[in-house]
Design goal:
62% of the residues lie in helices and 7% in strands. With 253 residues, the protein is mostly helical. It folds into two domains: 146 residues, no CATH class; 80 residues, no CATH class. A hairpin with a 4-residue loop joins strand 2 and strand 3. The two termini are 14 Å apart.
Protein backbone atom coordinates (compact mmCIF):
# COMPACT_ATOMS: atom_id res chain seq x y z
CA UNK A 1 0.00 0.00 0.00
CA UNK A 2 1.57 3.25 -1.09
CA UNK A 3 1.37 6.44 0.91
CA UNK A 4 0.92 9.85 -0.68
CA UNK A 5 1.69 13.26 0.75
CA UNK A 6 -1.18 14.55 2.85
CA UNK A 7 -2.87 17.67 1.51
CA UNK A 8 -5.66 20.02 2.52
CA UNK A 9 -8.06 17.85 0.56
CA UNK A 10 -11.51 17.82 2.14
CA UNK A 11 -13.78 14.84 1.53
CA UNK A 12 -17.21 13.73 2.69
CA UNK A 13 -16.77 11.30 5.54
CA UNK A 14 -20.46 10.99 6.46
CA UNK A 15 -23.40 11.76 4.18
CA UNK A 16 -26.68 13.18 5.47
CA UNK A 17 -28.20 9.72 6.03
CA UNK A 18 -25.26 8.66 8.21
CA UNK A 19 -25.31 11.92 10.18
CA UNK A 20 -29.03 11.66 10.91
CA UNK A 21 -28.66 7.96 11.70
CA UNK A 22 -26.01 8.66 14.32
CA UNK A 23 -27.94 11.62 15.73
CA UNK A 24 -31.19 9.66 16.08
CA UNK A 25 -29.28 6.70 17.52
CA UNK A 26 -27.59 8.89 20.15
CA UNK A 27 -30.83 10.65 21.13
CA UNK A 28 -32.80 7.40 21.30
CA UNK A 29 -30.12 5.67 23.37
CA UNK A 30 -29.86 8.52 25.88
CA UNK A 31 -33.63 8.82 26.26
CA UNK A 32 -34.08 5.05 26.60
CA UNK A 33 -31.39 4.83 29.28
CA UNK A 34 -32.86 7.71 31.28
CA UNK A 35 -36.51 6.63 31.01
CA UNK A 36 -35.62 2.99 31.63
CA UNK A 37 -33.83 3.83 34.86
CA UNK A 38 -36.64 6.23 35.81
CA UNK A 39 -39.17 3.41 35.39
CA UNK A 40 -37.07 0.90 37.33
CA UNK A 41 -36.04 3.15 40.22
CA UNK A 42 -39.17 5.32 40.31
CA UNK A 43 -37.71 8.78 39.70
CA UNK A 44 -41.07 10.48 40.18
CA UNK A 45 -39.42 13.75 41.11
CA UNK A 46 -37.85 13.93 37.63
CA UNK A 47 -40.51 12.35 35.43
CA UNK A 48 -43.75 10.51 36.12
CA UNK A 49 -43.96 6.76 35.54
CA UNK A 50 -46.60 7.27 32.84
CA UNK A 51 -44.54 9.82 30.91
CA UNK A 52 -41.34 7.81 31.28
CA UNK A 53 -43.02 4.67 29.96
CA UNK A 54 -44.68 6.57 27.10
CA UNK A 55 -41.40 8.19 26.06
CA UNK A 56 -39.57 4.88 26.46
CA UNK A 57 -41.97 3.09 24.14
CA UNK A 58 -41.83 5.94 21.61
CA UNK A 59 -38.04 5.74 21.37
CA UNK A 60 -37.88 1.97 20.89
CA UNK A 61 -38.95 2.07 17.21
CA UNK A 62 -36.62 5.04 16.65
CA UNK A 63 -33.65 3.01 17.88
CA UNK A 64 -34.68 -0.05 15.89
CA UNK A 65 -35.24 1.95 12.70
CA UNK A 66 -31.80 3.56 12.91
CA UNK A 67 -30.00 0.29 13.61
CA UNK A 68 -32.00 -2.19 11.54
CA UNK A 69 -32.99 0.01 8.57
CA UNK A 70 -30.77 3.08 8.18
CA UNK A 71 -27.46 1.42 9.10
CA UNK A 72 -27.91 -1.48 6.64
CA UNK A 73 -29.04 1.02 4.00
CA UNK A 74 -25.85 3.04 4.51
CA UNK A 75 -23.67 -0.07 4.24
CA UNK A 76 -25.41 -1.29 1.10
CA UNK A 77 -25.48 2.10 -0.65
CA UNK A 78 -21.80 2.85 0.04
CA UNK A 79 -20.74 -0.62 -0.93
CA UNK A 80 -22.76 -0.56 -4.15
CA UNK A 81 -21.10 2.71 -5.18
CA UNK A 82 -17.72 1.11 -4.56
CA UNK A 83 -18.35 -1.83 -6.89
CA UNK A 84 -21.72 -3.53 -6.74
CA UNK A 85 -22.06 -6.74 -4.75
CA UNK A 86 -18.28 -7.15 -4.48
CA UNK A 87 -18.04 -3.57 -3.26
CA UNK A 88 -20.65 -4.24 -0.57
CA UNK A 89 -18.68 -7.24 0.72
CA UNK A 90 -15.38 -5.33 0.74
CA UNK A 91 -16.97 -2.24 2.31
CA UNK A 92 -18.51 -4.31 5.09
CA UNK A 93 -15.33 -6.27 5.74
CA UNK A 94 -12.92 -3.35 5.90
CA UNK A 95 -15.22 -0.83 7.58
CA UNK A 96 -17.16 -2.91 10.09
CA UNK A 97 -15.32 -6.16 10.85
CA UNK A 98 -12.30 -6.28 13.14
CA UNK A 99 -9.52 -7.74 10.98
CA UNK A 100 -5.76 -8.31 11.12
CA UNK A 101 -5.01 -4.72 10.07
CA UNK A 102 -7.19 -3.44 12.91
CA UNK A 103 -5.32 -5.72 15.29
CA UNK A 104 -2.01 -4.13 14.23
CA UNK A 105 -3.46 -0.63 14.63
CA UNK A 106 -4.88 -1.44 18.06
CA UNK A 107 -1.57 -2.91 19.18
CA UNK A 108 0.16 0.29 18.10
CA UNK A 109 -2.38 2.39 20.00
CA UNK A 110 -1.78 0.42 23.18
CA UNK A 111 1.99 0.77 22.76
CA UNK A 112 1.56 4.50 22.13
CA UNK A 113 -0.53 4.84 25.30
CA UNK A 114 2.24 3.25 27.36
CA UNK A 115 4.96 5.27 25.63
CA UNK A 116 6.41 2.29 23.79
CA UNK A 117 5.58 3.70 20.35
CA UNK A 118 5.95 7.33 19.37
CA UNK A 119 3.29 7.67 16.67
CA UNK A 120 -0.41 7.04 17.18
CA UNK A 121 -1.36 4.70 14.30
CA UNK A 122 -3.67 6.22 11.65
CA UNK A 123 -6.89 4.25 11.58
CA UNK A 124 -8.68 6.19 8.84
CA UNK A 125 -7.54 5.11 5.38
CA UNK A 126 -8.70 7.05 2.32
CA UNK A 127 -7.92 6.02 -1.26
CA UNK A 128 -7.62 9.07 -3.52
CA UNK A 129 -7.58 6.91 -6.64
CA UNK A 130 -11.03 5.43 -5.99
CA UNK A 131 -12.46 8.34 -4.00
CA UNK A 132 -13.59 6.00 -1.22
CA UNK A 133 -12.57 5.15 2.33
CA UNK A 134 -10.99 1.77 2.88
CA UNK A 135 -11.71 2.05 6.58
CA UNK A 136 -12.72 4.90 8.88
CA UNK A 137 -13.58 3.44 12.27
CA UNK A 138 -11.43 3.16 15.36
CA UNK A 139 -10.50 -0.54 15.79
CA UNK A 140 -12.25 -0.74 19.15
CA UNK A 141 -15.44 0.66 17.63
CA UNK A 142 -15.55 -2.31 15.28
CA UNK A 143 -15.62 -4.58 18.31
CA UNK A 144 -18.26 -2.40 19.95
CA UNK A 145 -20.46 -2.58 16.84
CA UNK A 146 -20.74 -6.37 17.04
CA UNK A 147 -21.26 -6.43 20.80
CA UNK A 148 -23.76 -3.55 20.64
CA UNK A 149 -25.74 -5.26 17.89
CA UNK A 150 -26.08 -8.36 20.04
CA UNK A 151 -26.98 -6.25 23.08
CA UNK A 152 -29.69 -4.37 21.18
CA UNK A 153 -31.22 -7.66 20.04
CA UNK A 154 -31.21 -9.04 23.59
CA UNK A 155 -32.63 -5.88 25.16
CA UNK A 156 -35.43 -5.89 22.58
CA UNK A 157 -36.50 -9.47 23.23
CA UNK A 158 -36.34 -9.02 27.01
CA UNK A 159 -38.27 -5.78 26.63
CA UNK A 160 -41.05 -7.62 24.77
CA UNK A 161 -41.59 -9.93 27.73
CA UNK A 162 -41.46 -7.08 30.23
CA UNK A 163 -43.95 -5.07 28.15
CA UNK A 164 -46.51 -7.88 28.01
CA UNK A 165 -46.07 -11.56 28.86
CA UNK A 166 -48.84 -12.42 26.38
CA UNK A 167 -47.62 -10.22 23.51
CA UNK A 168 -48.08 -11.75 20.09
CA UNK A 169 -47.53 -10.73 16.47
CA UNK A 170 -49.99 -11.80 13.76
CA UNK A 171 -51.11 -14.54 16.07
CA UNK A 172 -47.63 -15.81 16.90
CA UNK A 173 -47.14 -15.92 20.72
CA UNK A 174 -43.69 -14.30 20.69
CA UNK A 175 -43.60 -13.39 24.41
CA UNK A 176 -44.75 -16.86 25.44
CA UNK A 177 -42.00 -18.51 23.40
CA UNK A 178 -39.40 -16.11 24.79
CA UNK A 179 -40.49 -16.91 28.35
CA UNK A 180 -40.01 -20.59 27.62
CA UNK A 181 -36.47 -19.94 26.35
CA UNK A 182 -35.66 -17.71 29.34
CA UNK A 183 -37.06 -20.43 31.57
CA UNK A 184 -34.34 -22.80 30.34
CA UNK A 185 -31.62 -20.37 31.50
CA UNK A 186 -33.14 -18.64 34.53
CA UNK A 187 -32.84 -21.55 37.03
CA UNK A 188 -29.07 -21.08 36.92
CA UNK A 189 -29.64 -17.75 38.69
CA UNK A 190 -32.52 -19.03 40.84
CA UNK A 191 -35.05 -16.98 38.87
CA UNK A 192 -38.10 -17.63 36.79
CA UNK A 193 -38.26 -16.58 33.13
CA UNK A 194 -39.81 -13.15 33.76
CA UNK A 195 -37.36 -12.30 36.55
CA UNK A 196 -34.48 -13.28 34.30
CA UNK A 197 -35.81 -11.04 31.51
CA UNK A 198 -36.00 -8.08 33.90
CA UNK A 199 -32.52 -8.78 35.29
CA UNK A 200 -30.96 -9.07 31.83
CA UNK A 201 -32.77 -5.96 30.60
CA UNK A 202 -31.33 -3.92 33.48
CA UNK A 203 -27.85 -5.44 33.06
CA UNK A 204 -27.88 -4.48 29.37
CA UNK A 205 -28.89 -0.95 30.31
CA UNK A 206 -25.75 -0.68 32.43
CA UNK A 207 -23.76 -2.08 29.51
CA UNK A 208 -25.04 0.69 27.24
CA UNK A 209 -24.09 3.28 29.86
CA UNK A 210 -20.56 1.86 30.01
CA UNK A 211 -20.37 1.73 26.22
CA UNK A 212 -21.53 5.34 25.97
CA UNK A 213 -18.80 6.43 28.37
CA UNK A 214 -16.14 4.53 26.40
CA UNK A 215 -17.45 5.65 23.04
CA UNK A 216 -18.01 9.32 23.73
CA UNK A 217 -15.74 10.29 26.61
CA UNK A 218 -12.72 7.97 26.64
CA UNK A 219 -11.92 6.82 23.11
CA UNK A 220 -12.83 10.25 21.74
CA UNK A 221 -11.14 12.25 24.50
CA UNK A 222 -8.33 13.40 22.24
CA UNK A 223 -7.71 16.51 20.13
CA UNK A 224 -6.91 14.17 17.23
CA UNK A 225 -10.31 12.53 17.41
CA UNK A 226 -12.45 15.53 18.36
CA UNK A 227 -12.87 16.62 14.73
CA UNK A 228 -15.08 13.59 14.21
CA UNK A 229 -17.72 15.07 16.51
CA UNK A 230 -18.13 17.94 14.05
CA UNK A 231 -18.01 15.58 11.10
CA UNK A 232 -20.68 13.16 12.28
CA UNK A 233 -23.09 15.70 13.78
CA UNK A 234 -22.61 18.83 11.64
CA UNK A 235 -21.07 18.89 8.17
CA UNK A 236 -19.84 15.36 7.46
CA UNK A 237 -16.47 16.65 6.19
CA UNK A 238 -12.96 15.40 6.95
CA UNK A 239 -9.63 17.09 6.34
CA UNK A 240 -7.17 14.53 5.10
CA UNK A 241 -4.13 16.27 6.59
CA UNK A 242 -5.06 14.85 10.01
CA UNK A 243 -2.31 12.82 11.74
CA UNK A 244 -4.71 9.88 12.19
CA UNK A 245 -5.55 9.70 8.48
CA UNK A 246 -3.58 7.62 5.99
CA UNK A 247 -4.03 8.63 2.36
CA UNK A 248 -3.26 6.18 -0.43
CA UNK A 249 -3.34 6.52 -4.20
CA UNK A 250 -3.82 2.94 -5.25
CA UNK A 251 -5.73 1.79 -8.30
CA UNK A 252 -8.02 -1.19 -7.71
CA UNK A 253 -8.16 -3.98 -10.26
Amino acid sequence: MSNVQKTKLVVERYNWVERWTHTFHAIAMLVLIFTGLAIYFGWGQLISYHNARLLHMFMVPVLLATNWILVPYGILSHGWQEGGVKGIVKHFYYNYLFNIEDYRRLKGMVLNFFGRQKEYPPYTVYNKATGHYKTKLHPLFKIFIVVEGMAIFLIVITGIVIYAVDWSFIGIPIAEWLLIIFGWISPILNMNGLQFARWLHLALTYFFIAELICHAFILQFSSKNFMYWRSIFVDGKEYLDSPIVQVTDEEEH
